[in-house]
Amino acid sequence: MAEPNDFTSRMRETADRLAAHGVDALGALFDLTARRLVRFAAAITKHQQDAEDVVQAALLRLVHEPALLASTQCPWAYLLRMVRNEALATLRRNQRKNAVNQVGDFILVFPVDEAERAESQLAVWKAIRSLPAEQAEVVVLKIWENLTFAEIGHVLDASLNTVASRYKYAMAKLAKSLANINHEAYHG
Amino acid sequence: MAKPHDDDSFQELEALIRSAGDAMQASGDLRPRVLEAARQRRDCLSFQGLLRQAAILLLVGGMLSAVVAEPWERASDREAAALSRGERHPFSDATSARDPGWSMVESFTDLRRRQANLLRFDL
Fold first, then answer.
1. Which of A75, A144, B81, B100 is deepest in the core (most CB within 10 A)?
2. Contact at 8 Å (CB) between A105 and A48?
């Protein structure tokens, strides 16, 4: 697939630049990865602000060791794992009792003239937010990050079977939550 | 809708979920926030590094001065003992022989000046 390869090579270049130039190259890393990292973290923490704090904490760790990503075999997987660890720690720390069926604090941008599509996308986010963190992260990595089960297992430090099992359970729940969505809204 | 475990329904569901992937955005101020925090942390780490280096230099300098000063302190102890016994200092001025008190002061002053010069050169 062209896009992941292109992203992978850009990720490698950015990691090397960070190792060479330190904090001065952090902006490039942010531009390349921040939105995806916030998305991934939000699926775990269930709150936008927490997700952004998690991403900030993970990127700030690189200030101490700017060569850390470049020294790994797969910088993107390593960065995802850093964010995941921070997100899980935040989730444990906060243990909010807010309703998880609302997505009021998520910053979601929808096409202005596509109300139906916006409605279905909002429903998707609500449904993902209602999943347990360990299932939501698998769904995000599989569908939005296009990782294989093996790659997801590497990020989560879990076996392939465990990842596949979580994915199936998650999709079954999402199918039930999104049963009433008009699929034509996103096919078009 | 098809059964949840049917691969075709998973495909449709995956497509639906995939379409929502780009909806989430980061806050507008996240980028400047992160970069500013990173610069501050870098500057803080640099300052801490300088403090550590200064502490190491002070420690090494202190140890060196103790090692260099020790023989001179022993020499000054011997010379001070000689002075206290009234022995003539080899560098004392001939005119100070008229005044033993001044002779001792001048001898001691010469000794300390000699020690300072040698310590300065060695460091």
1. A75
2. yes
A42 contacts B19? CB cut-off 8 A: no
Cβ of residue B20 closer than 8 Å to a chain A Cβ: yes
SS3 letters for chain A? CHHHHHHHHHHHHHHHHHHHHHHHHHHHHHHHHHHHHHHHHHHHHCCHHHHHHHHHHHHHHHHHCCCCCCCCCCHHHHHHHHHHHHHHHHHHHHCCCCCCCCCCCCCECCCCCCHHHHHHHHHHHHHHHHCCHHHHHHHHHHHHCCCCHHHHHHHHCCCHHHHHHHHHHHHHHHHHHCCCCCCHHHHC
Q: What count of other Cβ atoms lies within 10 Å of the Cβ of residue A120? A: 22
ipTM for the assembly: 0.85
Choose among B17, B23, B31: nearest Cβ to A30: B31
Residue pLDDT, tens place only, A109-148: 877 677 777 888 889 999 999 999 999 999 999 999 999 9
